[in-house]
Amino acid sequence: MTDRISSTGSDKEIHRFVTREQIDFLHNYFLEHKNRLTLLELREVLVVLGLQYTDEQFRTLWLQINTDHDEYCQWDEFLSYLILGFQDDDPLAVKQSLDPPIAGELYLKLSRQVYNIVKVDFCPMVYYDGSISWAQGRWITTSREGVINYWTEDWKPSLSARSVPSNLKRSKTWVLDTAPLPDISMLCVAGLETELRFYDVVASSFTLKLVIERLPHSVCALAYRFNRHESSKLLTGDYVGRVRMFVFYPDRKLTSSNESQKTVTRISLLEVLQGKYPPVECIEYGSVLPDMVRSIQFVNSLESFIACAEENPLTSTRKRTQPMQTCSMVIRSLVPSNATMTKFYVPRGVTCFAFEASNELLVSGGPDCELRLWDIHRPNKPSVVLMGHTSSIKFVFIQDAGEKIYSFDEKKIVKVWDVRNRVLLQTFSQLCTVLGKGVPACAYYNERDREIVVASNKLFVTACCPEIALDRTDGESHTKAVSVLLFNDLYQLVVSCGFDSFIIVWDHRVNRKMTVITQAHTQTRNGVLEPVEITAGCFDEKQQLLLTGGRNGSLKIWNISGRTCIRTLQIDDDCEVTALFWTSNRILAMGWNHCVVEFSAIADDDEYPRGLRWRKLHSDDILCAAVSDAIPGAMATCSYAGELVFWMLETGQPYRRYDATNPRTRIPIPFRDGPATKPRKIAPRLSVFQASMDRLQQRRLSRIVMPSGLEQMRRLSIQSLLFLASRPMLAGYGTLLGSLDNGTVQIWCHHPDGGYMGQFHGIHMAGDRIIVMATDKANKYLFTGTALGYIKTWYIENCWIPDEDKFHVNKPALRVLFPFLLHDVIPGRAKRSARAQPKPWLLNSYQAHQTCLTGLVYLDTTGLLLSCSSDRTVRLWTLGGRYIGLLGSPVNWQTLSAVVPPSEDYHFRVPPDLQRNFVFESVLLLDLFPVCNLEQRRERQ
Questions:
Q1: Which DSSP state fits 247?
Q2: pTM of the model
Q3: Under 8 Å between Cβ of 788 and 696
Q4: Strand 736-740 relative to strand 744-748, pairing
Q5: How far is CA 663 from the centre of its chain?
Q6: What are 819-861's pLDDT values in tens digits?
Q7: What phi and psi, each to the nearest 5 degrees, are found at residue 229?
Q8: Which of these, 188, 272, 198, 183, lies nearest to 229 by C-alpha position?
């Protein structure tokens, strides 16, 4: 997780600078000093190697290496620091995916069918000029009874027909395989009747046109290849392992006029081989396999075909040596004169296979439940054997140029494998519950949409690692809502946590994932281990440890350098943690337990392992809290009922209590705690962010305007609290901001002689509210994030202080100092809503996300603002509201500096999901590009 680039230059990175001989020298130096060095000794030996640091740089380096937080640097600590550095520089380490390969839902496309589906295929659209469009076409489903259905791209019925024996001696058939012939508008059907039936499929017609009969054995496998620059070819494999290829020449005319007038053309295989039917030629390859051909495919890159056969279960060859075994899979050239074949021997045979031409990777699966990876140039032994299935493998396909393999077995279980690391990535078993038991299933991989289609008595579709539509979105940072956003000053890295129970460490300057911790919080329910949402987080005072809180009341302390959990705590059962603070070797946690729980940060000195509970002064869940760094330290907490309580941080005693609905009236603090409240109900309650999203959805459906009288009687709760750290704890100074759920922001003085000082309106749309707030270190700017995804920047440097009347700057002069102020030429709703307010001054307003904001972090050194939302994204903005990029997006941006803001010629963009608002609403155009003049805005419009 550690990123040494943040604190020192890349040329001073120890793992990048030292050689192997220098590492041996360091090891011997540590051995001479009993495997531990002091701060000065480590600095001296690094100077000998040529690494010189400033005092601040070396202090940061020492904190990164010294994970034990003592006065010595152990050799193990130093070696771990080097190893983590090499891991961070590994380009393969950043490709870890957050979503499982099959993460989407199953979509039911076809409900219960009368006849079970045994084959699914897609017939693309072929135009008159020979061009092929896979974006248009029709789906084809086939049953053993010969029922063939055509469907549109969105699975609407298009054509239904039935294939019957051409000789009419029996009314029923048994279909073994089908293959669409798009370029000649035909469908080939192979059945037990030892004939190939070709149907003319044009518009809504399904007419039998050609029958190749008198085949020696029934054809059980078909493969078709067509190209506008060559003749179409159809490969067939029969019950005895013989392979033939039919070449079609539709432009050739028949020699007899009587034959051309027939409705159905019947021709025997012998006549085709003798060239008596010019439109079709046949090439015989002979018996390439010892038993029934289960699958056959063209290999265009090799001008060959691959065919496989499954061993006859009545003749076991398990104890035979390879020379005595029968061939299970072959690669044969399409050229008849080239009789060389590459043979593969697999116990019990091969049922299915897949070939990747880019790296010549061949994957086979069979009844022995093992997946084999082959090098086609070394067929004697598979290069990798992957085990994990418990039934015969029926379908295999490869994705992303051989990076992933998907295998489907008889039990309708899909397994996804990582080829590079040779590990199982996912086992997808939801198909077992939705498809009928005991009914065989078939599968088809739609490469264009990256979807797998599985059918038996029903048909389902699910996405397999879907690609990101970059014209509509920049992607996602998490798989679920992002709830925690932090910035580590020591490592200069961004940490985000979400409802997916992921902890992700980002290098925001280059859009790189440094570390991904999955299932950070877990719980066992009904015997199943499931992840728990992360709802709160903070760092320790040295920025070396990370503390996270879950929705089940659990707390975990993480070692940032070691990337491990070193301690687990619990405030209560099924109690969401809403706020965490780490101050003076104490951990303060609070949430739905109505009170503050204190833990010792040092496990050995913890007198209260289950936590020390402070006085209970809240009658409802604690929604938010804030800690002041001023002397003396103070903490403010607010509950869902609107109760605001000020605490002395050193003693844990309350000294002021207010009601957010009536802020000018103090609530007395009882001398003793009241009676215990009723126990919590078993029914789970929605999280704060989930409740916000549900309210927004209800608002979009209907809007009920409450009477003004009832609105005033409604109790208000504070959604977010924020201390202004640069201001002293003195009477008359506004030091605490609290955002109410009606859109206003209250200003409080947390001095014992202070109290409520005023409020201002912070939203410009009805039904919106401020969810999160943030400031810079000097408390010049206030950033507010709303439930509708808007970010507003306010100038508050000289607001709510005793001498604020002496400071006066007119707006033109202020606009020179801050060029990103809103202009008066196009006043939007945000501008009009703040026009009547004398303070604070609204600098800009823009929509940053489409859903509720959950976190804001401002970086003073570079002037960047990071925002996270329930839409699963973490985004970067400039102070003026210019969009830089999205963390985790495949769209990278120019490398950002660690000390200066982006320049004016930086390549700023507009979020693709906000393109529509950018085009049609001038207020958003103004807010996203606030430095443009009026003429530039008119040109864009």
A1: E
A2: 0.77
A3: yes
A4: antiparallel
A5: 43
A6: 544 433 355 778 788 888 888 988 889 899 999 999 999 999 9
A7: -105, 0
A8: 183
Q: What is the DSSP letter of 666?
A: B
**How far, CA to CA in Å, does 8 sit from each of 56, 64, 511, 824?**
10, 12, 19, 45
Amino acid at 66: N
d(CA 320, CA 362): 24
CA 372, 377, 380, 383 torsion: positive or negative?
negative
The strand pair at 205-213 and 265-268 is best described as parallel
The strand order across the sheet containing 756-761 reads 718-723, 736-740, 744-748, 756-761
Do residues 387 and 369 touch, judged by C-beta distance below 8 A? yes
Asked if omega into 632 is within 30° of 0 (cis), the reply is: yes
Whole-angstrom distance, CA of residue 538 vs CA of residue 801? 30
Write a three-state SS string for 21-75: HHHHHHHHHHHHCCCEECHHHHHHHHHHHCCCCCHHHHHHHHHHHCCCCCCCEEH
Residue 686 has a pLDDT of: 56
Which residue has tokens 């469907």? 151
- Token look-up 């248009």 returns 136
d(CA 830, CA 762): 9
- The whole-angstrom separation of Cα 309 and Cα 311 is 7
Residue 223's Cα: distance from chain center in Å?
36
**pLDDT tens track for 91-131:** 554 455 677 899 888 999 999 999 999 999 999 999 888 88
What is the per-residue pLDDT for 544? 87
Structure tokens at 544: 């070396």
HSE of 913, CA atoms in CB hemisphere, 13 A: 17
8 Å CB contact between 344 and 374 = yes
**Residue 790 has which token pair?**
């808007």
- Alpha carbons 21 and 281: distance in angstroms, whole number: 70
Q: How far apart are the first and last CA of the chain?
A: 45
Q: Which residues contact 383 (CB under 8 A, 6 or more apart)?
A: 373, 374, 375
Q: What is the pLDDT of residue 701?
A: 36
**Structural tokens at position 839:** 């303070």
Structural domains in the chain?
A: 14-89 (1.10.238.10), 115-240+242-253+262-287 (2.40.128.630), 295-313+326-464 (2.130.10.10), 764-926 (no CATH)
Q: Which distant-in-sequence residues (6+ apart) come within 8 Å of 899 by Cβ?
A: 861, 862
The two three-digit tokens of residue 233, written as one number? 């070819």
The tokens describing 867, both together, are 């925002």
- 625 near 580, Cβ under 8 Å? no
Element (H, E) at 146: none
Contact between 725 and 628 (Cβ < 8 Å):
yes
Distances (CA, A) of 775 to 178, 727, 761, 879: 66, 13, 17, 11
| Residue that the structure tokens 């000082």 belong to | 757
Pick out the chain residues at pLDDT < 70: 1-12, 88-97, 168-171, 253-262, 314-325, 561-562, 605-606, 673-714, 804-827, 916-941
- Give the three-state DSSP class for 691: helix
pLDDT value at residue 261: 53
Q: Say how far apart CA 164 and CA 581 lie, in whole Å.
A: 75
- Give pLDDT, residue 707: 52
Q: Which residues contact 737 (CB under 8 A, 6 or more apart)?
A: 721, 722, 724, 745, 746, 747, 748, 773, 782
Long-range contacts of 796-804 (CB under 8 A, 24+ apart): 796/724, 796/839, 796/840, 799/734, 799/839, 799/840, 800/733, 800/734, 800/747, 800/757, 800/758, 800/839, 801/727, 801/732, 801/733, 801/734, 802/732, 802/733, 804/839
In the numeric block, which tokens belong to residue 550? 């879950």
